[in-house]
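Z., the sequence and structure:
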Amino acid sequence: MIRQELVLEVSKEELEMSEERHRMDEQNQKTAMRVSAVSIVVNLLLSVGKLLAGIVGRSGAMVSDAVHSASDVFSTFIVIIGVRISAKKSDSHHPYGHERLECVASIILATILLATGVGIGLGGLKTVLSGDYENLAVPGILALGAAVVSIGVKEWMYWYTRAAAKKINSGAMMADAWHHRSDSLSSIGALAGILGSRMGYPVLDSWASIVISVFIAKAAYDIFMDAINKMVDRACDAETEAAIRRIVCSQNGVLGIDSLMTRLFGAKMYVDMEIAADGDKTLYETHEIAECVHDAIEKQFPEVKHCMVHVNPAGTREKVKPQ
């Protein structure tokens, strides 16, 4: 009777934890959709505004910057698709879920970001190598103002999107944040070029574009490598593993950790471990210890999608002490 009540109590706790994770996933998806909607509206308004300012103000750099902002709209749609698909529940064909598809979205965004950087760099390099600086048009004050507004708005969008990405642990959204930052850097290049042109040095626009393209390419590389690491089951960081060890060893009945393995799965994490317990305890008692460890890990680390715990009799393997 007591064992039956314990089993029912454990099942109730697991159900509550499952419902809580589901609520968190729904909240994260709502956050991603809200940020994406803001991004689309802002980028559309900026694109139209910068395009008009570039045409009226005779600034080729500002027209190019407008195209860059328009590409952000496309990248945000990729984020929306990636987040929605990755949030789908597990099914018979995908028993471990669809989280890795968000990594695919990140890779696509990194590719777009790299192409943007290369395009900006090649355009600037072409102008520098041509040597024909005297025929470059001098932009008007309207283009200068548009560049300043663009820098401020896109920096705000970078920090706004970055904060949301860190909150919901979304690689695709973080990639979109860096796309906003690349647009801000592009606008800085446009501003430098416009100022340089108005001061009699039109080639400064092209040099600024080349330097900015290097920063954009670096951001694309970082996003790409982060997505790849999450797709090839890379272990989580040392601090997280140390925290897991501390929590496990603090549970009643746990005498040590024989093995601990973690792997990143998109924005989620899987934990597989072997713990040591008193070999004289019954199977039911050791199972209860394993359940306590399992629940403690999934409660303390919301990003853990599943925790597998195997129990060994103490002394049969070399234990890993908590760090």
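Confidence is low (pLDDT under 50) at residues 1-10. The radius of gyration is 26 Å.

Let me know what you think.
H.
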